[in-house]
Amino acid sequence: MSSLGRIRNFSIVAHIDHGKSTLADRILEATSTLSKREMRAQVLDSMDLERERGITIKAQAVRVDWKGHQLNLIDTPGHVDFTYEVSRALQACEGALLVVDAAQGIQAQTLANAYLALENDLEIIPVVNKIDLPQADPDAAAAEIAELIGEDPARVLRISAKTGEGVEAVLDAIVERIPPPSGDPEAPPRALIFDSAYDQYRGVVAFVRAVDGEFRPRERVRAMAQGTTFETEELGFFSPERSPTPTLEAGEVGYVITGLKDVSRLRVGDTLTSAGRPATEPVPGYKEVKPTVFSGLFPTESDEYPELRDALERLKLNDASLFYEPETSQALGFGFRCGFLGLLHMEIVRERLEREFDLDLLVTAPNVAYRVLTKAGEEVEVHNPAEFPREVERVEEPYIRATTIVPKDYVGAVMELNTERRGRFHHMEYLSEQRVLLAYDLPLGEVVYDYYDQLKSRTKGYASFDYDLAGFQEGELVRVDIMLAGDLVDALSVIVHREGAYARAKALVDRLRAEIPRQMFDVPVQAAIGSRIIARETIKARRKDVLAKCYGGDITRKRKLIERQKKGKKRMKQVGTVEVPQEAFLAVLDLNGSSRS
Amino acid sequence: MTARYLYVHLPFCARRCGYCDFVTVLGRGDQHGAYVDALLTELELERGSLAPALDTVFLGGGTPTLTEPGALRRLLEALPRADEVTIEANPETVTPELAALLRESGVTRVSLGVQTFQPRLLEVLERRARPDDVRRAFYHLRDASFDNISLDLIYGIPGQSASDLERDLEDALKLGPEHLSCYELEAKPGTRFTYAHGEELVRQAEAMEGYFERVVEVVTGAGYRWYETANFCRPGREARHNLGYWEGRDYLGLGIGAVSTVAGRRWRNKPSLARYLAALADGRRPDREVELLDAVTLRQERLILGLRLDEPLPFAEVEPVLSLDALGRLERLGLAERRGDGLALTVKGRFLGGGVTAELLA
Questions:
Q1: Which CATH architecture has domain A293-363?
Q2: Does position A593 have pLDDT exceeding 80, yes or no?
Q3: Could you give the C-alpha distances from A428 to A115, A402, A415, A425, in angstroms and in order?
Q4: What pTM did the predictor assign?
């Protein structure tokens, strides 16, 4: 058993593609946790082995030995929407490696992660990676990172995770610079849940950092915030294969097999304690994560609704932050209103549904949660534009603090975009002579609409972007409804700022006119705020729709033509009196900025 | 049930027009006699499907009038008598001799494939006749005392302007035919024509949308009755044979590619000339595709075809295959209407007949 003094718990944080996973692999190699050959062989074998033993999920924390010390490397989720999860994983550590690409320098995610690490009082070990690259500028990158965290540039490590150069120095620095965990081995047991996963054989597996006391198998345990209780089936750690242990002690990192069948019963950030000898105070920092971005998901073929339901259920097993409830749209039929932690989370879910479950989906324009005070004096939170009250006293919308880092030549372009999106300038900072950080407060609702694509194209892809939620603020928001031949198309309603309403309404109306085939009568396409029409187009009626002659009694062919026409009609969605093809919805929803790249 | 309507397919053509996707055979002058023999053998084999007295006989093609005159005369004289005997003719084939032959052999009605009077557009269609051929053919037929002549026009030809159409209608009406058929050109997938002109047709589609309205306006304005979607006639001069199809009558078809419908059974002869000749030379029926029509299908066809006519069709006959919801909606839109015990499309509805019918079907 390691005493507390010999334990080091750490994470690696980095901007995407700056070398986080390569460095993790090198650490496993350098500590002989895995030989180079085993790296491949063993990981593959272990998949089968693990399956036999009845557990299939990947390690979220790996234990390695380095010069008589037990190092626990804790993995963090890769992107911005999971800030809360990242912060809980960091809370389980005492230190973090902050990795920066020697060619690219600090990026938006580097900053976000560095700030998170600082907030959690972690010892930060700055690492400049990829020094072997021809275009690397390790001095510049080291200067930036030292400046950022207030460190002596000489203490910035310079490595190449690819070649392995400098990796041992990293391990030494972990032992030397990161403090050992503090905790009371004698106190009632407490453990922080920093991640969880669902295994089809064993149920929910919680990844935990033991803070005080000691946990044992076959012990009654309680999650303090949610009140869930269960008996620990097995405790252990990954190295990287699963290694059951008789105890999990203060300071250690490992897993707990709970036997629970529902991942939502154990939330990240909650504290486990002994049911028999409970702690009085949980580990601080727990909060319930709430979805921030919402959209409707509908199967393009209405008979795929059961498949969509099953797929969402299965995703939810491993993703407690995914929220969904049935939604019925007059225009799109049966589907689900889903809530996501952010746009990227939404994209991930949508991609998994389409790729892993082979579903064709119609996704309505993403929107945010609005806090509405109705004229009747009632306060409601609205997640669906179709439920947004037409008469409102006051509306609040969520804001974010957005951080954008760009080469200085694109500062104007970003400012222009942010201003168009009702952003308020917060501050600007030169990270180096070339690179500038811009901080803005932006309504999240403006970011879910086509913002990433715009940012990318206006900065030629050089901008990096990150954000934190920054509370609710009042906004002059209106609901714009779309009507076809006088009938409301519920799925196309959007909430927009009053100033942008006309442009948005016109774009929607134009697109619908172009996409909806002409009908047997004139179809007015209107956009309205309340009862006031703000944009209008007309789809002119067809003037001719007849089949040509039938020669020599070839009636079967004629009948089949009509049958085909009939089938074509059946594939359309009937909105009031108007037949709207699936493609029209897809086109319009695409315009709504579900930015697929 | 036996058929009172007889169709005879004469597939021979001098050449194939680019837009045509009917069963045709080029040249083969030496086989015309054998083909007529085969037709007559098939007629004997199917005699049991024919009523003792026929209403109509229709000779379609191909270019029936290209058939070698001796063989054509032999055929016409051997076919059963009927009140209406129609033959399709290409203008350039109509000589005074041919007109006299047709008259003498019992033909009562000639349908002339004019298509257009504009030389430029005739070339686009790859037609052989020139505008003067049309007029000449028409006069030859009148001289042979044909008092029931129909002209076929095509509109929507690539490059056809609105004034081209006006001139075509004017030229056709000037001749004073008893009957006019006006079809929009169909660019059928796979034809040489679609390959050459498909894009142009798409480009001018919107401009041409008004052509149909204009045809109806001009032709009815000249006193013709718009009795079927694409057909117009002087009073009492409907094409009785085609009316038989539209009213759901049984008919017997002879020849390659010909379709018959008798007593709920539909069959279509396969298009191979050689196999057809061989089978009938052996006294066997030619190869056929057979389709059995159940009561529902027959009613659906009754609806699909019957709604092409200006006269209402008996509501009770089609009610089982109707969507009454759709009917209500279409009535409100002024596209369909109940008239007494009948159902018909309004004038507005007839312009949209395809879509309206598709919607009406349950």
A1: 2-Layer Sandwich (3.30)
A2: no
A3: 17, 12, 11, 8
A4: 0.69
